[in-house]
Design a protein that fits this description.
With 100 residues, the protein is mainly alpha-helical. It contains two helices and no strands.
Length: 100
C-alpha cells in the first residue's frame, strides 16, 4: 500500500516536471513571442485611446467649470446692481416721506 502511494506521488511529480518543461518550451517559442508582442501592442493602443478620452473629458470639464464661473460672476454682478438700484429707490422714498 505504501508503494502505491509513493508511485502516485512520483508519477505526479514526473508529470509536473514534464508539463513544466513543455510549458516553458511553448512559452518561449517564436509563435508565443509573436502573441506576446501583438498583445503588448494592443494594450499600448488601448492605453493611447484611454489617454485621449481622458484628455478630452478633462478639457470638457475645464470648459464647463470656466463657463459656470462666468455665469456665477454675471449673476453676482446682476444681484449687486439690483441691490444698488433697490437701495436708491428706498433712499428716494425716504426723502419723499421726509418732505411730506
Amino acid at each position: 500500500m505504501m508503494d502505491i502511494f509513493r508511485l502516485k506521488k512520483l508519477g505526479i511529480f514526473a508529470g509536473g516536471v514534464l508539463f513544466g518543461t513543455a510549458g516553458i518550451k511553448i512559452l518561449s517559442s517564436k509563435d508565443a513571442k509573436k502573441v506576446y508582442t501583438n498583445c503588448t501592442a494592443a494594450v499600448l493602443r488601448a492605453k493611447e485611446c484611454i489617454l485621449k478620452t481622458a484628455t478630452t473629458v478633462q478639457e470638457n470639464a475645464e470648459d464647463i467649470l470656466a463657463e459656470a464661473q462666468q455665469i456665477n460672476d454675471e449673476r453676482a454682478a446682476q444681484e449687486a446692481a439690483n441691490v444698488e438700484e433697490s437701495a436708491e429707490v428706498n433712499a428716494g422714498a425716504d426723502v419723499l416721506k421726509e418732505v411730506e
